[in-house]
Amino acid sequence: MRSSSEEQIGLSNSEEDDETGKSFTERRLTDGGTGTFQYRDLKNANIFYSEKPDSIEEFMQDIKVDILKNFPEIPDFESSVRKLSSRTRDNLLFSFDLDNILKHLDDGYAHKNYVEVEWMKQIRSDFVRAEQVDKALNLTDMFDRHWFSAVKNFLISTMSLITTILNPPDDGQSLHKYKKARKKRKNKGSKLVESAEREQRPLQSVYHHYYTRIGELFFLKQRAVVNRTFIFGDKIVSSVPDLAYGFASRPVAVQKNVLLSLVEVEGKPINNDMSECLEDKLDSDVLGRMGSELFAVVPHSVMFPNSLGMICMGTRIIFVYLKIKKEPGELLILPLKSKGIIQYTRPFDILKAQDRGDVCEILYWLGCVQNHCDRELLLTT
Whole-model pTM? Predict the structure, then answer.
């Protein structure tokens, strides 16, 4: 009989470098063969997604309650979060409809040039506005001191992303034309349009870089990803998030706890934009992989026995939160004794000003939590 919950779910850790070229279909489980971890595997483990999304306010409140319960010494940061969120909303005003632009990529150079110029005007206006605000800030505050630098890097990365979207590499265009022609021969139905949309996406490494800049905008510092495995029935499931953000409860301590894990999704995984239910929206392997990442990190989660994650799809993000009911002394074995629920939010598009403003508070709060020890150390020296 194994003696600890970590041993009972067969967790093992090994530090790995980020693999930016991986897609969700390349995260494998081993059970004598290969295959992706599907949503049905989660259901067999007694873990299910909610039927409808939570509001971002309800979602954030759940997270705050769980973190402050485990780490009551952490300040609430309400004043700092409100100030930072308001400043960012008021100064980062650019707003782009990426889906609409992707539909017109073949409209010719003149149209693409017009779109690019208009986008750049918005971003430059935001840069100038933020620079003026920075001159009036109290730079003795750690967050105020780093705010403009984070905004500048985010805006530069946004410009790079836009340029890549509008001017994809030539080899990608050639591959797109070849695949489109081949797909047309094989299937003349609606899947052709979907295939074309998938191939017009820029390189995933560009999106990966953008996700890191999104985190940095809210003062979130990534840590090295950890390869964790757990045993489920006759399967050994390997779990490696694309990005991870750690947490240390003491100054200058190693960030052994996990605050947030990100899973990047390539292509066009959203199947049904009309439905609120995530099970209807996303492919089974996306749901399965995200669920396995959430479960694998539970023993190390800041919100133990719950864990927080984010699904990243192009410029859209969805927050997800695994909630597990654990009795004192109960081991975390699969299938779970009590039903595990994965709560989630609606998708938010970071390129749209309204959506970006809606996620400011939750992301700034997580950034403040991660940095609270460094901030306290600075205040006492």
Answer: 0.82
